[in-house]
Design brief:
Structural class: mainly alpha
Distance between the termini: 48 Å
Strand order of the largest sheet: 1-2-3
Length: about 300
């Protein structure tokens, strides 16, 4: 299977959002449906969020500049947080407000079938973008492992686009169901109920994303399995008696910084210690390319 790059997932989401905005705005004007207006708002917010992600990806790839010797990888987290806050306080609140207003003051929706066709297209396009995100998160693992893979993945930009594309897919499905019920029953409040439901779903997913990014910004450690791998690599060298402590931090752009406190055997001279630490760093880099930098301290 071809590897899916982070830029491919972000760019796909960007193009899908452009299509959504163009079609939803046009159909909202033709039909007068507040659901389609909410879809347009969701598309604008998603497009802005993906644009911020693209900015974060570009800036986080800058390595080793004077004021940031370890690079600007964690800047990706900052722009992801801004995107999440935008979705929570702008998109979801406006969608709910428009839906609530329409619920209190219902109006007829015209050309419902046109709106349903556009929502069906949105389900397909957003679903395709979502499938790319899922495939990148799974990384050739079975679909049954999606939840733990999603929890442990370092691909913050793909996890963000996954939430965005999930929002787009869910809102299209909810809008489709609401307008279908409106068409079948003639109950005009279904238009407003659908928009309010979209707003609530967007708010829930935004809060989940904000919670994840907060942990990354304040210095989240790598998954325990990765720390155990680093520890085992160090212990493969007979000169290492034990790993007294290991600390890791996710540094953005799918990279990790690790720090090890090692207890070595006695009677090693300076040259031997230098060669050993260089060897351990090389071993870790070879087996775990995501570990960008390894610091080794010796303890008695």
């Amino acid at each position: 299977m071809t590897e899916i790059s982070p830029r491919r997932t972000v760019l796909t989401s960007f193009l899908v959002d452009l299509i959504d905005i163009a079609t939803n705005v046009t159909v909202a004007m033709i039909t007068g449906s507040v659901i389609m207006a909410s879809e347009s708002l969701q598309g604008v917010a998603d497009l802005t969020a993906v644009g911020l992600l693209m900015l974060g990806l570009n800036r986080s790839s800058v390595r080793g500049i004077q004021n940031h010797p370890l690079g600007r990888g964690r800047e990706l987290y900052f722009w992801t947080l801004i995107a999440s806050i935008l979705m929570l306080f702008l998109t979801s609140s406006l969608s709910f407000y428009l839906g609530f207003t329409r619920y209190l003051h219902p109006e007829p929706v015209y050309n419902v079938y046109l709106a349903l066709i556009v929502l069906g297209i949105a389900m397909i396009t957003n679903g395709y973008a979502l499938s790319l995100d899922i495939r990148r998160i799974l990384h050739h693992q079975p679909i049954t492992t999606l939840i733990p893979q999603l929890k442990n993945s370092l691909f913050i930009e793909t996890k963000t686009t996954l939430v965005l594309d999930l929002m787009g897919t869910c809102s299209a499905i909810l809008g489709f169901v609401s307008l279908t019920l409106y068409q079948l029953t003639g109950y005009s409040q279904f238009d407003g109920i659908g928009a309010m439901t979209v707003g609530v779903v967007l708010a829930i997913l935004s809060v989940i994303l904000i919670k994840e990014v907060k942990q990354l910004l304040i210095g989240k450690r790598a998954h325990k399995s990765i720390e155990n791998q680093i520890k085992n690599i160090a212990l493969t060298n007979p000169e290492v008696r034990r790993v007294a402590q290991i600390k890791t931090i996710l540094s953005g752009n799918n990279l990790i910084i690790a720090s090890l406190d090692l207890h070595l055997i006695n009677d090693l001279d300076t040259d031997a210690i230098e060669k050993l630490t260089a060897k351990i760093k090389h071993q870790i880099q070879q087996e775990l390319p995501s570990v960008e930098d390894t610091q080794i301290e010796l303890v008695s």
